[in-house]
Structures are given as structure tokens and as C-alpha cells.
Design a protein that fits this description.
The protein is of the alpha/beta class and about 300 residues long. The protein has 3 domains: about 80 residues, Winged helix-like DNA-binding domain superfamily/Winged helix DNA-binding domain (Arc Repressor Mutant, subunit A); about 110 residues, D-Maltodextrin-Binding Protein, domain 2, CATH 3.40.190; about 100 residues, D-Maltodextrin-Binding Protein, domain 2, CATH 3.40.190.290. Helices cover about 40% and strands about 20% of the residues. The longest helix is centred in the first third of the chain and has 28 residues. One of its GO terms (biological process) is DNA-templated transcription.
Length: about 300
Amino acid sequence: MAYLDNIAVFVRVVELGNLSAAGRDMRISPAVASNRIKELEKHLGVRLFNRTTRQLMPTEHGTVFYSGAKQVLEAITEAEAAVSALSGQPRGTIRVTAPLGLGRRLVASGIPDFHDKYPDIEVRLRLSDHNVDIMKEGIDVAFRLGIIEDSSLRMRGIMECERVLVAAPKYLEARGEPIEPQELIGKKHDCLMLRYSGAREYVWTLQTPAGPQKFEVHGPYDTDDGDVLTGWALSGRGIINKPRFEVEPFIRDQRLKVILSSTPPTPVQFAAVYPHKKLQDPKVRLLLDFMAERCQRLIKDLLAGK
């Protein structure tokens, strides 16, 4: 098992680029991770990484070994999943990611309940509004809002979510409430956007009488955290485009007001995505079933004001 542990550390270092990140991911210290890489290099008789101050880059030997090592670990995971399916006792670790706001509201609170139901399954949850590379970072399940374009992934739709444009009453009093979507263009209004490396939402697509239409909106600042956007809107700093369930409590208590309700944003798909092979893993299927039912129920409760 020690040799397999060393291989697993090596694979995560390649995928994450440094010892610290790999150590955090595997719940070991950077020193332990470093020792395991050294043991592996000693066993193989070659250097696996070129070391720089910021990143470890695989050598030619390391690149070749990574390809085979990855296949070995995947084969072991598939074999364990097959045994779990036969025994009816799924066990192991699931790596899950979700956007910050959605993750806090819907996913995170369900992890302890899932573990209570399936105590032999560990869940490692990562919340980020960045576009996480599922394959590179070894993610088993990613909960996402938006279009899924990666053909190497499978998708399980959970719910189509209504979107709304909202702003604080004091912003609308100061800047005026837009009546037509065209009023959002230019510098007439501050439209606050979610932006990060790889983000595609640099325009707002609204449902108009002529069909979906894209509007290139602008604002004085943006962020990679959806909850920060909501906070700015609540403080009267601009207009935001959000799934209704995320801002419904603020609409209900009149801290935010829906605008352009006759030309709302196009709905957004809430879905779980995962690598093709993962659906064969019973613990992944159990998590998908559990979270799909739970998230649908919670979203309906949020929209109903419960």
C-alpha cells in the first residue's frame, strides 16, 4: 500500500503543480508528500520532477510515468467500485466541487446528512466560483450553474432555474429604473458582473419579443465571488443578474427589486457533471440521487419563502 500511496501523491502533484496543494488535497503535510516523491524516485531510479521556486514540472520520465500511474489508480478505483456494488456497502472518498453561493446554500449543508446515511463514504467539498478543471483536478462530481460544453463530461440535470435582474431601491432612486433592455448598454447603468479566468458570462442574454438577445453591459467593477455581487447590489452599487432562488429573500423583504420583468434573463441550468466512468461508481450514484432530490426541495422552499 505504501507504494500505491506514493503513486497517488505523485499523480496529485502532477495535476495540482506543487507539493502544498497535493498535500492539502490528500490531507498530508508537504513534508510527507515530498518524502513520498523521493521514495518513488529512489524506487524508479530517475528524477520525476524539475523543481522551481513555485511549481514542480514533470520531467520526461515523470510525464511517461504519470500516464501509466493514472491508469493504475483508475483501474483500482473501478475495481473497488465493482466490489462495493456487489457487497452493497459503498465506501471510499468522493471529491465534490460547487460554486460558492450555491455550494453554501444547497450542497454544503447536505454533506453531513449524506455521511450520516452512508458513514463509509467520505466527501471532500471544494467551493469556488472559478471554472474548476474536473479532469485535471480529480473531481468526481461538480455542481454547476450554466451551459456545460465539455464533451468529456456527462451531465445530470437537476433543475432549470429562473434568473432575474435586481437592484436596490436606493440605486434605482438615484439612477432611475430601466424600462427597456437597451438602457443597460453604455454607461447609463452599473451592471455588476461575475468574472474569472475562463468565464463566459461577459454579456447578459435577455428574453425579448424577438427571442433571446445578448447585451454587452458594463460596470465599474466585477468579482469572482457571486455573494460579493449580491452584497454590492444590496448596498446600492448596481444591477446584478442572479438565479432567483439566491436573491428571493432580499426581494421578499424589499431590499432588492426585480427590474425588466417583461424581458428577464434566460433561465440557467443547475446540473451535476462528472467524468463518464464515474457513474459506474455506486457511491457517486448515491451522492447524485441524494443531492438532486435535496437541492430541488431546498430551491422550491427558498422560492416559497420557507
